[in-house]
Amino acid sequence: MLKGFRDFIMRGNVVDLAVAVVIGGAFGQVVNSLVADILTPLIGALGGAPDFSAIKLGPIALGKFINTVVNFLVVGAAIYFLIVVPMQEIEKRRKKAEETAPPPPPEPPEEVKLLREILSELRRKA
């Protein structure tokens, strides 16, 4: 039973997933800090207070929902423009470099291979 558990834990995809979850959590903190500490104050400076939590429609806290939606849109925009777009550009450049790389030389004909073998054999005997 323990061997099966060990084999399960040591699978490559389980370890990769664990690393991805940890990195994702840390990256989430970075993005949240970017939004809360940099982008939201900039939005507030440009368009007034970015806090809508005081807006209520009777007992419904509509402002909190609006804050959450705005936060979601800002996080989505930050991830898109700071991560996705640059990664797409890097991938595009990488593919272009692969396409413009010269193709490998063609395989020599059988006669040339045979002559090379004969030459190497003669050099070995000499």
From TrEMBL:
Keyword Transport carried by entry: yes
InterPro entries listed in its UniProt record: Mechanosensitive_channel_CS, MS_channel, MSC/AndL, MscL_channel
Keywords, sorted A to Z: Cell membrane, Ion channel, Ion transport, Membrane, Transmembrane, Transmembrane helix, Transport
Entry keyword annotation includes Aminoacyl-tRNA synthetase: no
Subcellular location: Cell membrane
NCBIfam families, A to Z: mscL
Name of the protein in question: Large-conductance mechanosensitive channel
GO molecular function: mechanosensitive monoatomic ion channel activity
Function as written in the Swiss-Prot or TrEMBL entry: Channel that opens in response to stretch forces in the membrane lipid bilayer. May participate in the regulation of osmotic pressure changes within the cell.
PANTHER family given in the database record: LARGE-CONDUCTANCE MECHANOSENSITIVE CHANNEL, MECHANOSENSITIVE CHANNEL MSCL
Cellular component terms per the entry's GO annotation: plasma membrane
Main location: membrane
Pfam families in alphabetical order: MscL
Subunit structure: Homopentamer.
Matches recorded under Gene3D superfamilies: Large-conductance mechanosensitive channel, MscL, domain 1 (1.10.1200.120)
Coiled-coil ranges per UniProt: none
Transmembrane segments: 12-31, 65-85
Family of this protein: Belongs to the MscL family.
The organism's place on the tree of life at top rank: Bacteria
